[in-house]
Amino acid sequence: MKFVNSYKDKMRKYNEEHNLTYYIDTMGCQMNENDSLKYAGILEGMGFKKGNEDTANVYVFNTCCVRENAENTLFGRLGMLKRRKINNEEIYIAIVGCMTQQEHILEKIKKSYRFVDIVLGTSCMSIFPEKLYDTIVNDKKKIEYIDVSNNLEEDVPIVYEDKYKASVSIIYGCNNFCTYCIVPYVRGRERSRKPEDIINDVKRLAKEGYKEIMLLGQNVNSYGNDFEEKYTFPMLLKDLEKVEGIEIIRFMSPHPKDFKDDLIEVIKNSKKVARQIHLPLQSGNTEILKKMNRRYTKEEYIDLALKLKEIPDISLSTDIIVGFPNETEEQFLDTLDVVRKVEFDQIYMFIYSKRTGTIAAKMEDEVTYDEKVDRLERLKKLYEETLPKLNAKMIGKEYKLLVEGKSKNNNKLYTGRTSQNKVVVFEATNNDVGKVVNVKIDSEHLWYLKGSIVR
Ligand code: 5AD
Ligand code: SF4
What we know:
6-stranded parallel β-sheet, binds iron/sulfur cluster
């Protein structure tokens, strides 16, 4: 469905007199961050200017229900905005995204947060301009649940904050129903964007000077499964590789069960696909993986990871959940075993937490919270012991990277990420920013590397 904003001109006119500002509060994953850039695009097209957290007129909460504490964060922040509503300040509040797809949240908003003006689910961008216009100009507010979560919206304007790196969604939704995960319930079924729409987006980005793209999807290697004609994720990568100007292509996340040899071949032969693969493990124990409905075994995962590691200079990152319902000590030790064998460059670690509506939420769980925390700490320790060794392998070698800007911690140094997604700091000049340069690695410092530009 093509995105049409028929409220753009009317709202712009209104804003010429009222000069309203907006602020977007984003929770959660990169898909949500990408959605927020689209909300910014819609709002700027309607004449709203970017404002700040304390004084903005239009607030958009782009919510998440995967991250723990997201609910408390949202309701805490809403509580703070209530005062501005009571003081009759000109402020409008919209809640969008994953959380609003959950009935108990919607009920809570309706009951206790009646000052909220707009509540929309995921994939509701086409409805947003109308709702916003109605709220602001016609003084109509509506809290309702609109289920268009299986919608696929094209041509939504987007405002990137970064000048050289951009994310591009290629597939929405998920069909996998991992038992702990709420995503399939709130983001609907898999919908792949047409290859030509993605390729045109990337060509436009290249023309605008973008050098690096991140392809996004809950499961990128399901891309194309919903097409009649065969067109797969590896085929898309090959086509995007041809776009001149784009130098680095990243993607996240692939599912290990769908990671086939054709994809490995494309990565291996590509000059642009980053030497970094995010391969969510979740657990290293086959029994737990089965209970999670991940559809691979410990051995299959290790085989795949080690096959990927044969690609020169590749780095692997992963997601791991500790303390899945009734996970035993032995089962957890399998996770540590995989971590030891694979040697990940980056691990996003989570303590299992219940998501209402999922299958795992109904599973019995006797593992205490303290045990779960202890497992997380042990996993962290093992990871931090491995990392220096992996980093040290990079010392003395040269890597291509995009100079992103000044380092936040040291004003005299500049920073960028290698294809392996390792942060490197080095001496450079403002002229180098936005350029792809070669950097030789001099030393490792756990979370970053130091290097020097090879001129
Ligand atoms: N509890 C803990 N971690 C979870 N994740 C998803 N759902 C849950 C949950 N209920 C983690 C998974 C996923 C990442 C984005 O969040 O590791 O890959
Ligand atoms: Fe959630 Fe599994 Fe889908 Fe990832 S693949 S979004 S973990 S259901």
